[in-house]
Amino acid sequence: MGRWLTAFPNARVAQVAELAANVHAGLVWLCQEGPGLAGALAGLQAVAPGVPVVVLSCQPDPAEAAAAIAAGARGYCHALAAASLLEQVAIVVSHGGMWIGPELLCRMVAATGHALSPRVEPAPGLAQLTERERAVAEAVARGATNKEAARALGITERTVKAHLGAVFSKLGVRDRLQLVLELGRQVQQREPETA
Question: 116: Cβ–Cβ under 8 A, 6 or more apart, which residues?
């Protein structure tokens, strides 16, 4: 709780029941984990509808993070995260975004990449990429981290970042998830219609 209070010195710590009198809160941080998480989120939504909730966990777990997001949380992060990271989470969530952390994002990207149908030849947008950029894009679309892609391709992590920047620029996307969605869209456009 100390790091959280360092990040937000003017914040107020309250029990869920106290939130009914404080529904003007801009963001709620919920310190809850385990089987009671869904119930706590439902309770928060009942007393403070529309107020975004970020779940703080002392032992973050991707399955729990997914369950928290499915139950209505707008963010999920480690309770002992650095104050600067907590401030970033608050900015993202307060502006309508969602914070799920890099590990869960990689899992989501991998799941989305696996759901894409395999292709024999590159989608049209991929044709503008170099062979190495295409390899990096495909590795990332399968859910590889920069380090994993570098290891698999026999290049440095810094080179992966450079290629990924070029891929994002050429395809007009801004992050990994958009890259996967764009690749999926291009694959769908190339699939012949079945009668």
Answer: 141, 180, 183, 184, 187
Segment (H or E) for 56 = strand 53-57
Contacts of 51 (CB under 8 A, 6+ apart): 19, 23, 25, 26, 27, 28, 44
- Of the candidates 40, 108, 97, 27, which has an alpha carbon nearest to the alpha carbon of residue 68? 40
d(CA 137, CA 139): 6
**Cα(104)–Cα(176) distance, integer angstroms:** 12
What HEC string does 1-43 produce? CHHHHHHCCCCCCCCHHHHHHHCCCCCEEEECCHHHHHHHHHH
Confidence of residue 117 (pLDDT cuts 50, 70, 90): very low
pLDDT tens profile 9-46:
666 555 555 544 454 457 888 877 667 777 888 877 77
Q: Which residues pair with 117 in a beta bridge?
A: none
| Percent of the chain with pLDDT strictly greater than 70 | 67
How far is 182 from 4, CA to CA, in rounded Å?
Answer: 36
Residues forming a β-bridge with 76 = 55
How far CA 103 is from CA of 73, 78, 108, 114, in Å, comes to: 17, 12, 9, 17
Residue type, 20: A
**End-to-end Cα, the chain, rounded Å:** 60
